[in-house]
Specification:
10-stranded mixed beta sheet; 3-stranded antiparallel beta sheet
Length: 303
Amino acid sequence: MKATREIYYRDRSSNQLITEIIDNEAFLRWFYENSLGFQVLNIAFNCKAPQQLYATLKRSSKSRANIAAFVEKHSINVEEIELPLSRYRSFNEFFTRKLKPGKRIFDRNPSIFCSPADGKVLVYPQLEAEQKIPIKGTSITISDLLDSNIAANPYRNGSALIVRLAPYDYHRFHFPVSGIAQGTVDIQGQYHSVNPIALAKVPDVFCRNRRAVTTFWSDQFGQIACIEVGALTVGSIVQTYQSGRVEKGQEKGYFQYGGSTIVLLFEPNRIQFDDDLIRDSMNQLEVHVSAGNKIGHQAASDC
Protein backbone atom coordinates (compact mmCIF):
# COMPACT_ATOMS: atom_id res chain seq x y z
CA MET A 1 0.00 0.00 0.00
CA LYS A 2 1.26 3.48 -0.83
CA ALA A 3 2.58 5.34 2.19
CA THR A 4 0.58 8.19 3.63
CA ARG A 5 1.85 11.71 2.89
CA GLU A 6 3.91 13.52 5.49
CA ILE A 7 1.96 14.78 8.49
CA TYR A 8 1.94 18.53 9.07
CA TYR A 9 0.74 20.68 11.93
CA ARG A 10 0.87 24.39 12.75
CA ASP A 11 2.91 25.44 15.75
CA ARG A 12 0.81 28.16 17.32
CA SER A 13 3.67 29.90 19.14
CA SER A 14 5.70 30.44 15.94
CA ASN A 15 2.85 30.18 13.40
CA GLN A 16 5.09 27.86 11.37
CA LEU A 17 3.89 24.79 9.47
CA ILE A 18 5.90 21.85 10.82
CA THR A 19 6.47 18.33 9.51
CA GLU A 20 5.83 15.94 12.40
CA ILE A 21 8.66 13.66 13.50
CA ILE A 22 7.11 10.25 14.21
CA ASP A 23 8.79 7.82 16.58
CA ASN A 24 9.17 4.32 15.10
CA GLU A 25 7.50 5.56 11.90
CA ALA A 26 8.58 2.55 9.79
CA PHE A 27 6.94 0.11 12.23
CA LEU A 28 3.82 2.27 12.56
CA ARG A 29 3.38 2.48 8.79
CA TRP A 30 3.91 -1.27 8.43
CA PHE A 31 1.29 -1.99 11.09
CA TYR A 32 -1.33 0.33 9.56
CA GLU A 33 -0.48 0.55 5.85
CA ASN A 34 0.36 -3.10 5.17
CA SER A 35 -2.32 -5.82 5.33
CA LEU A 36 0.05 -8.35 6.90
CA GLY A 37 1.32 -5.79 9.37
CA PHE A 38 -2.24 -4.96 10.45
CA GLN A 39 -2.95 -8.64 11.09
CA VAL A 40 0.24 -8.94 13.16
CA LEU A 41 -0.73 -5.84 15.13
CA ASN A 42 -4.18 -7.19 16.00
CA ILE A 43 -3.02 -10.72 16.80
CA ALA A 44 0.27 -10.12 18.60
CA PHE A 45 0.30 -6.56 19.93
CA ASN A 46 -3.23 -5.21 20.35
CA CYS A 47 -3.86 -6.79 23.73
CA LYS A 48 -2.91 -6.18 27.33
CA ALA A 49 0.04 -8.56 27.82
CA PRO A 50 2.48 -7.11 25.24
CA GLN A 51 1.54 -3.59 26.29
CA GLN A 52 2.41 -4.43 29.89
CA LEU A 53 5.69 -6.02 28.82
CA TYR A 54 6.65 -2.94 26.82
CA ALA A 55 5.74 -0.71 29.75
CA THR A 56 7.92 -2.85 32.05
CA LEU A 57 10.89 -2.41 29.71
CA LYS A 58 10.40 1.37 29.72
CA ARG A 59 10.39 1.33 33.53
CA SER A 60 13.66 -0.61 33.76
CA SER A 61 16.90 1.13 34.72
CA LYS A 62 18.47 0.13 31.39
CA SER A 63 15.92 2.25 29.52
CA ARG A 64 17.44 5.46 30.93
CA ALA A 65 20.15 5.12 28.27
CA ASN A 66 17.56 6.15 25.67
CA ILE A 67 16.69 9.49 27.29
CA ALA A 68 19.50 11.66 25.90
CA ALA A 69 19.00 10.54 22.29
CA PHE A 70 15.23 11.06 22.58
CA VAL A 71 15.72 14.59 23.93
CA GLU A 72 18.11 15.45 21.11
CA LYS A 73 15.93 13.94 18.36
CA HIS A 74 12.87 15.92 19.42
CA SER A 75 14.64 19.10 20.61
CA ILE A 76 12.98 18.89 24.02
CA ASN A 77 13.57 21.99 26.14
CA VAL A 78 15.47 20.64 29.14
CA GLU A 79 15.43 24.06 30.80
CA GLU A 80 11.76 23.67 31.70
CA ILE A 81 12.03 20.11 33.05
CA GLU A 82 11.85 19.72 36.83
CA LEU A 83 15.01 17.59 37.22
CA PRO A 84 18.35 17.21 35.40
CA LEU A 85 18.26 14.31 32.91
CA SER A 86 20.72 12.34 35.06
CA ARG A 87 18.16 12.20 37.88
CA TYR A 88 15.61 10.14 35.94
CA ARG A 89 16.00 6.45 36.76
CA SER A 90 14.11 5.12 33.70
CA PHE A 91 12.71 6.31 30.40
CA ASN A 92 9.17 6.14 31.76
CA GLU A 93 10.15 8.31 34.73
CA PHE A 94 11.43 10.91 32.27
CA PHE A 95 8.36 10.48 30.07
CA THR A 96 6.02 11.30 32.99
CA ARG A 97 8.24 14.22 34.04
CA LYS A 98 6.96 17.27 35.85
CA LEU A 99 7.98 20.77 34.82
CA LYS A 100 9.48 23.57 36.89
CA PRO A 101 6.93 25.85 38.58
CA GLY A 102 5.65 28.58 36.29
CA LYS A 103 6.42 26.79 33.01
CA ARG A 104 2.73 26.28 32.19
CA ILE A 105 0.65 29.33 33.15
CA PHE A 106 -3.16 29.10 33.15
CA ASP A 107 -5.02 32.39 32.64
CA ARG A 108 -6.87 33.12 35.90
CA ASN A 109 -9.79 34.81 34.09
CA PRO A 110 -12.65 32.32 34.72
CA SER A 111 -14.22 33.03 31.31
CA ILE A 112 -11.04 31.93 29.47
CA PHE A 113 -10.77 28.24 28.54
CA CYS A 114 -7.23 26.85 28.53
CA SER A 115 -5.73 23.78 26.93
CA PRO A 116 -5.57 20.90 29.42
CA ALA A 117 -2.32 19.56 27.96
CA ASP A 118 0.53 20.03 25.54
CA GLY A 119 -0.46 18.63 22.15
CA LYS A 120 -2.03 19.14 18.76
CA VAL A 121 -5.64 20.28 18.83
CA LEU A 122 -8.72 20.03 16.64
CA VAL A 123 -11.92 21.84 17.64
CA TYR A 124 -15.53 21.20 16.68
CA PRO A 125 -17.76 24.23 17.49
CA GLN A 126 -21.01 22.34 16.87
CA LEU A 127 -21.29 18.59 16.63
CA GLU A 128 -23.08 17.01 13.72
CA ALA A 129 -26.52 15.42 13.93
CA GLU A 130 -26.84 12.36 16.13
CA GLN A 131 -24.01 13.54 18.39
CA LYS A 132 -21.22 12.74 15.89
CA ILE A 133 -17.62 13.97 15.74
CA PRO A 134 -16.13 13.93 12.21
CA ILE A 135 -12.76 12.17 12.12
CA LYS A 136 -10.75 11.58 8.93
CA GLY A 137 -13.67 11.37 6.53
CA THR A 138 -15.93 9.37 8.84
CA SER A 139 -17.49 10.12 12.21
CA ILE A 140 -17.71 8.67 15.69
CA THR A 141 -20.72 8.95 17.98
CA ILE A 142 -20.50 10.39 21.47
CA SER A 143 -22.48 7.45 22.82
CA ASP A 144 -19.82 5.06 21.51
CA LEU A 145 -17.04 7.25 22.87
CA LEU A 146 -18.66 7.35 26.34
CA ASP A 147 -19.99 3.79 26.05
CA SER A 148 -23.40 5.09 27.13
CA ASN A 149 -26.42 6.62 25.40
CA ILE A 150 -27.56 8.28 28.63
CA ALA A 151 -24.16 9.85 29.38
CA ALA A 152 -24.07 11.28 25.84
CA ASN A 153 -27.37 13.17 26.06
CA PRO A 154 -26.08 16.42 27.64
CA TYR A 155 -23.66 16.92 24.74
CA ARG A 156 -26.19 16.59 21.91
CA ASN A 157 -25.51 19.45 19.42
CA GLY A 158 -22.67 20.58 21.68
CA SER A 159 -18.96 21.12 21.02
CA ALA A 160 -15.81 19.01 21.18
CA LEU A 161 -12.06 19.45 21.60
CA ILE A 162 -9.42 16.85 20.73
CA VAL A 163 -5.84 17.15 22.03
CA ARG A 164 -3.37 14.61 20.60
CA LEU A 165 -0.19 14.11 22.60
CA ALA A 166 2.87 12.82 20.74
CA PRO A 167 5.48 10.79 22.67
CA TYR A 168 7.77 13.83 22.97
CA ASP A 169 5.11 16.06 24.57
CA TYR A 170 4.82 16.81 28.29
CA HIS A 171 2.42 14.03 29.33
CA ARG A 172 0.73 15.42 32.42
CA PHE A 173 -2.73 16.88 31.94
CA HIS A 174 -4.60 19.52 33.93
CA PHE A 175 -8.06 20.90 34.61
CA PRO A 176 -8.65 23.66 32.01
CA VAL A 177 -11.07 25.56 34.29
CA SER A 178 -12.31 25.30 37.90
CA GLY A 179 -15.31 23.27 39.05
CA ILE A 180 -16.47 20.00 40.62
CA ALA A 181 -15.08 16.72 39.29
CA GLN A 182 -16.58 13.27 39.75
CA GLY A 183 -14.47 10.16 40.07
CA THR A 184 -13.16 8.55 36.87
CA VAL A 185 -14.88 5.66 35.08
CA ASP A 186 -12.56 3.32 33.17
CA ILE A 187 -13.72 1.80 29.87
CA GLN A 188 -11.78 -1.23 28.69
CA GLY A 189 -10.67 -1.38 25.07
CA GLN A 190 -7.87 -1.93 22.58
CA TYR A 191 -4.44 -0.36 22.14
CA HIS A 192 -4.30 1.27 18.71
CA SER A 193 -1.99 4.19 17.97
CA VAL A 194 -3.68 7.61 17.89
CA ASN A 195 -1.30 8.99 15.26
CA PRO A 196 -2.97 10.17 11.99
CA ILE A 197 -1.33 7.18 10.25
CA ALA A 198 -3.45 4.90 12.45
CA LEU A 199 -6.56 7.08 12.17
CA ALA A 200 -6.47 6.72 8.39
CA LYS A 201 -6.85 2.94 8.87
CA VAL A 202 -8.97 2.89 12.05
CA PRO A 203 -10.92 6.19 12.14
CA ASP A 204 -13.04 5.11 15.10
CA VAL A 205 -9.96 4.41 17.23
CA PHE A 206 -11.16 6.70 20.06
CA CYS A 207 -14.18 4.42 20.52
CA ARG A 208 -12.08 1.25 20.37
CA ASN A 209 -9.23 2.15 22.70
CA ARG A 210 -9.12 1.93 26.45
CA ARG A 211 -10.19 5.23 28.00
CA ALA A 212 -11.01 7.03 31.24
CA VAL A 213 -14.07 9.31 31.56
CA THR A 214 -14.57 12.06 34.13
CA THR A 215 -17.76 14.13 34.39
CA PHE A 216 -16.83 17.66 35.35
CA TRP A 217 -19.21 20.47 36.37
CA SER A 218 -17.27 23.62 35.54
CA ASP A 219 -17.99 27.02 37.05
CA GLN A 220 -18.36 28.86 33.73
CA PHE A 221 -18.65 26.26 30.94
CA GLY A 222 -21.36 23.89 32.15
CA GLN A 223 -20.99 20.13 32.27
CA ILE A 224 -17.90 18.76 30.51
CA ALA A 225 -16.93 15.17 29.78
CA CYS A 226 -13.15 14.71 30.07
CA ILE A 227 -12.00 11.58 28.23
CA GLU A 228 -8.40 10.36 28.30
CA VAL A 229 -7.76 7.85 25.53
CA GLY A 230 -4.95 5.33 25.85
CA ALA A 231 -2.93 4.20 22.84
CA LEU A 232 -0.35 1.78 21.50
CA THR A 233 2.42 1.31 24.13
CA VAL A 234 0.63 3.43 26.76
CA GLY A 235 1.38 1.69 30.05
CA SER A 236 -1.53 3.26 31.89
CA ILE A 237 -3.57 6.40 32.50
CA VAL A 238 -2.92 7.63 36.03
CA GLN A 239 -5.33 10.00 37.80
CA THR A 240 -3.72 12.16 40.50
CA TYR A 241 -6.72 14.34 41.49
CA GLN A 242 -9.33 13.64 44.14
CA SER A 243 -13.03 13.94 43.28
CA GLY A 244 -14.68 17.13 44.49
CA ARG A 245 -13.62 20.75 44.07
CA VAL A 246 -10.73 21.27 41.62
CA GLU A 247 -9.04 24.45 40.46
CA LYS A 248 -7.98 25.71 37.04
CA GLY A 249 -4.49 24.47 36.18
CA GLN A 250 -4.52 21.74 38.84
CA GLU A 251 -2.94 18.50 37.68
CA LYS A 252 -5.56 15.87 36.82
CA GLY A 253 -3.24 13.02 35.93
CA TYR A 254 -0.68 11.69 33.47
CA PHE A 255 -0.12 9.12 30.74
CA GLN A 256 2.68 6.62 31.07
CA TYR A 257 4.81 5.83 28.00
CA GLY A 258 3.22 6.28 24.54
CA GLY A 259 1.27 8.82 22.51
CA SER A 260 -2.20 9.56 23.82
CA THR A 261 -5.28 11.72 23.30
CA ILE A 262 -7.68 13.81 25.38
CA VAL A 263 -11.25 14.49 24.20
CA LEU A 264 -13.44 17.09 25.89
CA LEU A 265 -17.20 17.29 25.23
CA PHE A 266 -19.29 20.38 25.96
CA GLU A 267 -22.99 21.14 26.25
CA PRO A 268 -24.44 23.39 23.50
CA ASN A 269 -23.62 27.13 23.52
CA ARG A 270 -21.09 26.90 26.32
CA ILE A 271 -17.74 27.57 24.62
CA GLN A 272 -16.52 29.76 21.76
CA PHE A 273 -13.26 28.38 20.36
CA ASP A 274 -10.61 30.79 19.06
CA ASP A 275 -11.01 31.71 15.39
CA ASP A 276 -7.61 30.42 14.25
CA LEU A 277 -8.32 26.99 15.72
CA ILE A 278 -11.73 26.84 14.05
CA ARG A 279 -10.21 27.84 10.70
CA ASP A 280 -7.45 25.21 10.81
CA SER A 281 -9.71 22.48 12.17
CA MET A 282 -12.09 22.99 9.24
CA ASN A 283 -9.12 21.99 7.05
CA GLN A 284 -8.16 19.12 9.41
CA LEU A 285 -4.89 20.90 10.24
CA GLU A 286 -3.85 20.25 13.83
CA VAL A 287 -2.39 23.13 15.86
CA HIS A 288 0.21 22.52 18.55
CA VAL A 289 -0.48 24.34 21.82
CA SER A 290 0.87 24.11 25.35
CA ALA A 291 -1.04 23.38 28.54
CA GLY A 292 -2.51 26.63 29.83
CA ASN A 293 -2.71 28.31 26.41
CA LYS A 294 -6.02 30.06 25.71
CA ILE A 295 -8.06 28.07 23.19
CA GLY A 296 -11.50 29.61 23.74
CA HIS A 297 -13.80 31.61 25.98
CA GLN A 298 -17.24 31.44 27.48
CA ALA A 299 -19.91 31.67 24.77
CA ALA A 300 -21.63 35.07 24.63
CA SER A 301 -25.09 33.50 25.00
CA ASP A 302 -23.95 31.84 28.23
CA CYS A 303 -22.40 34.92 29.89
